[in-house]
Amino acid sequence: MELTWWPVAAFGLGALILVLALAVLLPIRRGREQQLPLANTARLTRLPEYRAVVRRQTRAATVALTLLVLLFGATVLATARPTGTFWDADASGPRDDIMLCVGAPETDPATRPFLSYFARQATTYGSERIGLTSVNRRLVPLTRDYQFAAGRLAELSRPGPAAPPLSTPVEYDDYAPTVDDLLALCLTGFPDFQQPGQTRRSLIYLGPGHLRAPGDDRPSLFTDTQVADMARQAGVQINAIATPGRDTATLSAAAAATGGQFLRFDAADLDAQLDAIRAAAPAGPDGGADARQDSPAVVLVVALALSALLGVALMAVRR
């Protein structure tokens, strides 16, 4: 088990030790009414009934104090955000960052089933982050808010005119976007994309092999080589599903350079194609990093059980 906020646990342990030390070391100041002399107290305290009552109260107080200390420890542990448990620390899987990169317009027959697939998948994720980038917009930044991501992807995959646009048309006199530019934009959606992260990084492109109209020779921002270098530097695997109608040399080269898959869109087999891409995700740094997701369930259940037992113990002490 690891703690996300370990200083909280250290502070709680220090506070507990301080309180216990003060309770043991500081003298107890008794009020004047407790110091009044009583007759025959020695004979009273030797009575079996008196000793039985004292033993019962001592046991109840000891149990209550023990439960109180354990409850405090469980509360501090839950506040420190535990990740994983002791018995599954070695079985945690790698984390995945998945950036969807859509070059096809929302009216393309491939766009809706592509987004619908990941809208369904997002609800099943546990440690993955998912994002969505279009030609000139970051529609969903990388997130583990699966409810938001699934809702946004479902909204963008709505059929007909009800579907929101994936990108805003922008015209330039001396520039037109290319597939390389879009891939570079998608790569910058990974945090600290200048270097490999502690996650498995996958980029999944859907769209044509060329975004420009035939004969458009305006300059672009990135080249095939620059995009491949960026992907390798960031540790990103580029996968591509090409829609028909345009040359796909750029996409196939980018996928081959980063160990990804290049596939041609097949409406009847799209889910299987995406399953195959996800099944062949990169190994990640050092064979994959441990998944770090909050796992407070066990600690919270223990805290609730201790609270219930403490309530019963306090009732016994009052009696």
If you had to describe this structure to a student in words, what would you say it looks like?
- The chain crosses the membrane at residues 6-28, 60-80, 297-317.
- Keywords: Membrane, Transmembrane, Transmembrane helix.
- The chain has 319 residues and is α/β, with parallel strands linked by helices.
- The chain folds into two domains: 2-25 and 49-86 and 296-318, no CATH class; 96-280, 3-Layer(aba) Sandwich (Rossmann fold), CATH 3.40.50.410.
- 44% of the residues lie in helices and 13% in strands.
- It has a six-stranded mixed β-sheet with strand order 5-4-3-6-7-8, with helices on both faces. The chain has a two-stranded antiparallel ribbon with strand order 1-2.
In short:
Keywords: Membrane, Transmembrane, Transmembrane helix. The protein is α/β, with parallel strands linked by helices and 319 residues long.
List keywords for this structure.
319 residues, alpha/beta, Rossmann fold, six-stranded mixed beta sheet, 10 helices, 44% helix, transmembrane helix
- Total separate domains: 2
- The rounded distance between the terminal residues' Cα atoms is 40 Å
On the 0-100 scale, what is the average pLDDT?
85
Strand sequence of the main sheet, in spatial order?
5-4-3-6-7-8
Identify the overall geometry.
Answer: elongated
Q: In DSSP terms, counting alpha (H) and pi (I) runs of 4 or more, how many helices?
A: 10
Strand content: 5-15%
Oligomer: single chain
Work out the helicity level.
40-55%
CATH topology of the largest domain: Rossmann fold
Q: Which parts are unreliable, with pLDDT below 50 for 5 consecutive residues or more?
A: 287-291
User: Would you state the CATH class of the largest domain?
Assistant: Alpha Beta
- Structural class by helix and strand composition: alpha/beta
CATH architecture of the largest domain: 3-Layer(aba) Sandwich
Q: What is the succession of H and E elements?
A: EHHHEEHEEHHEHEHEHH
CA-atom Rg in angstroms:
31 Å
